[in-house]
Design brief:
Blueprint (H helix, E strand, L loop, with lengths): L9 H10 L11 H11 L1 E3 L11 H6 L14 H16 L3 E6 L2 E5 L4 H8 L6 H4 L2 H13 L1 E3 H8 L4 H13 L3 E7 L5 E6 L1 H8 L5 H16 L1 E2 L3 H6 L3 H13 L3 E5 L2 E4 L4
Helix pairs in contact: 2-4, 5-11, 7-8, 7-9, 11-13
């Protein structure tokens, strides 16, 4: 297969339409269908649109390649449905949900959770060296209470500044210590925060090598994408470019993928 100027061929785009539900006939309409989709792709962004690489719950709800999140999401039916489905899947607790990079949240299937935790997570003995003091304070409270609403957790942890609390919560999500386990809208909007191990103890306790974890994350992405362009896997997951390359190269070594150029890998079956 020839790639011109690092642009995907129509064959690959059609492949992604099917795998990532970018087709009106495959669009997601409920939480159960969303869970099946997440399980199939292994991981996906929650509410990103076509401007970001990788599978997306929002794009799958829209069922088209060019889905763009509108500025006024409150009045958009597709954005509203995607948000409702996101909340439903979050509450059901069969898929991991949290932030990995920046402000973007992703869903991760249980089968890939040990791999992401191996790459991004930290052990308990590392917490004092890696986590900021506000994050440690929040974690200490949750280890006593197990779950708390945002306002109560801020008060109990002493991290009263909203910005500092948000940064600390995001920090804890990125290392697989804390997850939002529920979301409440009345009498006011709030997340319920829980220890990640309360839902995913077996998965987060699984030990594997970093090389294996990178290979299997790369495999899951390539199965859904058909082909990865330079930097695409790194942007979709938050993994560094060198480690994304290492994961893809491992797939080449075992004959699962073919390297077509610098940073460009293709499923053997699509070559």
């Amino acid at each position: 297969m020839k790639i011109v100027n690092s642009v995907l061929t129509e064959e690959v785009e059609i492949y992604r339409d099917r795998k990532w539900h970018r087709d009106p006939e495959l669009r997601l309409e409920n939480g159960y269908a969303a869970e099946q989709f997440i399980e199939a792709v292994g991981f996906c962004s929650a509410l990103t649109d076509s401007r970001r690489p990788g599978p997306s719950l929002y794009v799958a709800v829209c069922g088209r390649r060019d889905a763009h999140m509108p500025r006024n999401v409150q009045k958009d039916p597709e954005a509203g449905l995607a948000w409702t489905i996101k909340d439903d899947v979050l509450r059901r607790g069969r898929m991991h949900y949290g932030k990995l990079r920046g402000s973007r949240s992703i869903f991760i299937a249980r089968r890939l959770l040990p791999h992401f935790k191996t790459v991004f997570g930290i052990d308990r003995k590392e917490e004092r060296l890696v986590l900021t003091e506000p994050a440690q304070d929040i974690l200490k409270v949750l280890r006593k209470e197990w779950d708390m609403a945002t306002g109560d957790l801020r008060k109990a942890s002493g991290v009263n500044d909203r910005a500092s609390f948000t940064r600390a919560i995001d920090e804890l999500q990125r290392v697989f210590k804390v997850i939002p386990s529920d979301v409440v809208y009345t009498p006011k909007f709030t997340y319920i925060w829980s220890l990640a191990e309360s839902r995913f103890q077996a998965e987060l306790g699984t030990i594997m090598s970093r090389d294996e974890a990178l290979r299997e994350i790369a495999r899951a992405y390539l199965i859904g994408a058909g082909m990865t362009l330079r930097g695409e896997l790194a942007r979709a997951t938050g993994i560094s470019n060198p480690e994304a390359g290492a994961g893809n190269w491992a797939l080449v070594d075992e004959g699962f993928a073919t390297r077509l150029g610098p940073g460009i890998y293709c499923l053997k079956e699509l070559e």
